[in-house]
Amino acid sequence: MVRRKLHRVFPFFFTYVVVTCLVGVIRFVAYKGFSANTYFYVYWCSDIVLLVASFSALYEIFLQRIFTGFSKVRFYRYLFPLAALIIAALAFLTALNAPDKRAAFLIASKVYDFIRSVVIGFFVLLILVMGRLFSGYEFSITLGFGIQASVALANSAVRAVRGYRSSELDRFEPIAFDVACLVWLWALSKRAKPKPMLSAGELKVETLHQVRQWEEAVKDLLTPGKRRL
Question: pLDDT averaged over the chain?
């Protein structure tokens, strides 16, 4: 990414890649050189860091690259930062107050997997409905996150049925991450240039109107009582 100067085009995704590499090294050192209790806290605290980094990358792809006009709608502009902060805060507070901290962190992680899948699915559906161009680097990066999210969500469903005991799909989550990395490596090694970002003047009025309609629909679902008053 640095050689092709893509870190300037996708700074949040580049940050996610760097953070992921650092987290891997830190976890390895904690696993080899410290106690199991220390490794436990290092693992789950670093998982929260990865959570924020991944949501930032998704924010960059969907709201800064594909739906550039969404940033002008307040609801969507704050959607990703609020989601990341709320999940991180809930995970931390739940773990502090839970008698079984391992189970608390595990449940919080699975909730994050679910929300990540919903966010990716929502915007992919929106792309199809609105007929937006979805290709190139943006598609490949989203595909990588989608592979991770799909396997993690499937594993979460199996674990929930089994009372959060280990399942056969546990081994597939690292494999899904490796596949995502291969997808990103292959896509970002290509010489294809990313699409230029549209300016505010190029945004169609119909698109902004449709975005606001989506916002009102989502608000009606979230706060039905207030909307009727």
Answer: 75
Is pLDDT of 21 > 90?
yes
Torsion of CA 210, 216, 218, 222, to 10 degrees: 180
- Tell me the C-alpha distance between 219 and 164, whole Å: 33
Structure tokens that stand for 105 in this block: 């962190």
Max CA distance (Å), the chain: 60
Residues 6+ away with beta carbon under 8 Å from 59: 12, 79, 80, 81
Residue count (the chain): 229
Is the per-residue pLDDT at 25 higher than 90? yes
Query: Which backbone phi and psi does 125 adopt, to 5 degrees?
Result: -60, -40
114: left (phi over 0), alpha (psi -120 to 50) or beta: alpha
pLDDT digits (tens, 9 = 90+) for 96-119: 665 666 666 666 677 777 778 878
In whole angstroms, what is the distance from residue 52 CA to residue 79 CA? 13
Domain ranges of the chain: 6-224
Identify residue 157 by its one-letter amino acid code: A
